[in-house]
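Late entry, evening session. Most of the bench is empty. Finally got around to the prediction I had been postponing all week. Sequence below, unchanged from the version circulated by S.P.
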Amino acid sequence: MIASEYGSLSWYQLFDKQFEAAEVSARKGMGMSENAEWINTNFALALLFQGKFEDAKAVYLNLKDKPYGEGTYSATFLADFDALEKEGITHPDVEKIRDLLR
C-alpha cells in the first residue's frame, strides 16, 4: 500500500512541476513492491521532464507494448501526456516519445 502511495505522490508532484521529487517518489515506490511496475508511468515522465531523454526513452521502449489495464502501457503513456498538457505542462521531447509509442 505504501508503494502505491508513493506512486500517487509522484503523479501529483508532476502536476506541481516537482520533477526531481517525482523521480525520487517513483523510485521509492517501485523499490517497495514487485507489483508497483505501474509507477514507471510516472517515473518515465519525471525523467523526461528533467531532460533525461535517453533514460526516459529506455523506460518507454521497455514497457510500450506490455499489457496494462485494458490496453497497453503505450495507451497509458499517451493519456498521461494529454493530462499534463491539459494543465499546461509539457516538454519539447514529448513529441519524440509520442512518435516512438505510435
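Two things to note before I forget:
The first strand starts at residue 67 and ends at 68.
The chain has six helices and two strands.
Will write this up properly tomorrow.
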